[in-house]
Amino acid sequence: xxxLIPPREPFIKIENCLDRLLNRSRALCVLLADISGQLISxxxxxxxxxxxxxxxxxxxNMAATAEIARQLDEPAPFSYLFHEGQRRHIYISAIGAxxxxxxxxxxxxxxxxxxxxxRLAVNELLEVASELEPWLEKASAVVDREFRGALAQGLDxxxx
Amino acid sequence: MFxxxxxxxxxxxxxxxxxxxxxxxxxxxxxxSRTNPRQRGELICLKTRGDRTLYFDFMQLELxxxxxxxxxxxxxxxxxxxxxxxxxxLVLQGADGVVYVAxxxxxxxxxxxxxxxxxxxxLRALGVSLHDFPLVLQYNKRDLPTRAPVALLQMQLARxxxxxxxxxATEGVGVIETLxxxxxxxxxRI
Lengths: 160, 190
What we know:
The complex is a heterodimer of chains A (about 160) and B (about 190).
Chain A: H1 9-25, E1 29-34, E2 39-44, H2 51-71, E3 80-84, E4 89-95, E5 99-105, H3 111-136, H4 145-158
Antiparallel strand pairs in A: 1-2, 1-5, 3-4, 4-5
Chain B: E1 2-4, E2 9-17, H1 24-33, E3 44-47, E4 53-62, E5 70-77, H2 85-92, E6 97-103, H3 109-125, E7 135-140, H4 150-157, E8 164-166, H5 175-188
Parallel strand pairs in B: 2-5, 2-6, 6-7, 7-8
Antiparallel strand pairs in B: 1-2, 3-4, 4-5
Helix pairs in contact in B: 2-3
């Protein structure tokens, strides 16, 4: 079977940007997801975290607060959210209209630092996002009859 | 659907939609319990103290690699209660397909139709027509003595070519068949 080669450049840029953000902000973990909650990339210590579920929950959180902004007659959705916990905190920022960034951190750093470096990362990621977006939906390039057949078989095996 | 080239994953989002207490969460609970733990994530339920869905339920299901890509299915439910209309629209964002879980009971016929109408409206608000959208119908609670004839449910909810399944989600009957049909339908539309 053919194995598809992904376009590397936008992903390298994203990886570098997330690495820089993680190191500079001294966060525990950073996640990049799209607004429907699909996880695109993750960096840092994600041990014990269900990052797929976290991506879905943060995206829903952003969507719910965007709706709150609309109800409040705000001209645009809120650009970031911050939830402070007893041990861990999460800072979530929109990246344009299609993506979001979630930064999980603890007492090793401060919210001010996280905010500064998150803003820098968001600006950087905004540029890359436009390069990345078309690739995320190129499903028709891989989904043909052979793929569908293999998928149906995989489903049958999963629920045999 | 999108392909995550970095993680070599192909992601699908399927939303279980339907009137309140029709069995959407029960569908997900059943899928979760019948899936190999290595192939699924945690079942996340955002619910009220009264055990009703407040925002959504979520679980991820994954299969082995196909052509080097790992298919991942993100399954969501919406809250069925009418007051959560805004939440339903939010959960529908980015959906690739919908499983409509109808309550077969005679006294829920109107609720089924109202909710189908709300699905159509919510999709329209997202720029999608229900008629062009992958949809699977599930007539749940077929074990109850108060169930309506399937022909009546079909007349009210079905349209040509929509796959339909009868189910008793509390016993797992028809649940996996519905899920498989939804996934295959979504993939066939790409």
